[in-house]
Amino acid sequence: MDELDARADRAQRAARDGGEVARRAFRTGIDVETKGGKTDVVTQADRDAQRRVVERIREAFPDDAIVGEEADELKSVPDSGAAWVVDPIDGTNNFVRNVPVWATAVAAVLDGEPVAAANFLPALGDLYAADSERAYRNGEQITVSQRDDPETCTICPTFWWDFDARDEYAATTRALVTRFADIRRYGSMQVVLSLLADGALDGVITNKQANPWDSVAGVHLVRMAGGTVTDFDGNEWRHDSDGLVASNGHIHDTLLDAAREIEDI
């Protein structure tokens, strides 16, 4: 097994093991704490799951940097060297409301670029994974949808807009519903990027700068499934980009038109 394959394998193992820790706490009435605001929540399950993910990574790659949402891990992706980006429960608001749409996300990064990823959805039993060539759901190769008519496509406005930015949320919704067939919101960026990679959604968009733990794994999945991910200007998306526009590629120009409308408010 070469190094890239080893990282892909470790991402999947770590995501599964961390996700199982979180799953055992799901729907058990676990205590909920808030961090930066009323909807920025965290539980002991987040901390326990991240600890397990980090343990599994360090078993194989003890010297790599780790970027993680919880605890005192790094909060930004280094531009050089090997690193891992971890979100123990992406969709904690769903988790605490007993909604089974959340993921444990792990991405392997080399010199700032993802090379492997795994998003495990424990409550649904699905493992989305990508190596350096392809993307998979439960071991079967997946690809983005082939829809090219925007009026048949479903888009997800993702990430969250605080109460002082609800005009941006409204503008995003308006820009999408006037161009596309429908919109969905699931409450987890990693889940919706996984669904885009699997062809269940046709596009994902936010004008916010996404945290790396919310986005890097899913972006790699989309790319390896044949999709396109850019910033709002159409440039290749990076972990530090402002805004994220992801699509099956066929409708990307229309999604960028929507992005420009959002930016004009």
Task: Describe this protein's structure.
This protein has 265 residues and is an alpha+beta fold. It has two domains: 3-142, Fructose-1,6-Bisphosphatase, Chain A, domain 1, CATH 3.30.540; 150-263, D-Maltodextrin-Binding Protein, domain 2. The chain has seven helices and 14 strands. The strands form three sheets. The chain has a seven-stranded mixed sheet. A hairpin with a 6-residue loop joins β1 (32-34) and β2. α1 (3-25) runs antiparallel to α2 and α4 runs antiparallel to α7 (252-263). The chain is globular.
CATH topology of the largest domain: Fructose-1,6-Bisphosphatase, Chain A, domain 1
Indicate the mean pLDDT.
94
Order of helices and strands: HEEHEEHEEEEEEHEHEHEEH
**How much strand?**
15-25%
By DSSP, the count of extended strands is 14
- Unreliable stretches: none
The major β-sheet equals: 7 strands, mixed
CATH superfamily of the largest domain, please?
Fructose-1,6-Bisphosphatase, subunit A, domain 1
Computed over alpha carbons, the radius of gyration is 17 Å
Q: Tell me the distance between the termini.
A: 51 Å
Determine the number of helices (DSSP H or I, runs of at least 4 residues): 7
The helix content, as a percent range, equals 25-40%
Please identify the structural class as seen in this structure.
Answer: alpha+beta
- For the biggest β-sheet, the strand order reads 3-4-5-6-7-8-9
CATH level 1 class label of the largest domain: Alpha Beta
Number of domains: 2
**CATH level-two architecture of the largest domain:** 2-Layer Sandwich
Broad shape: globular
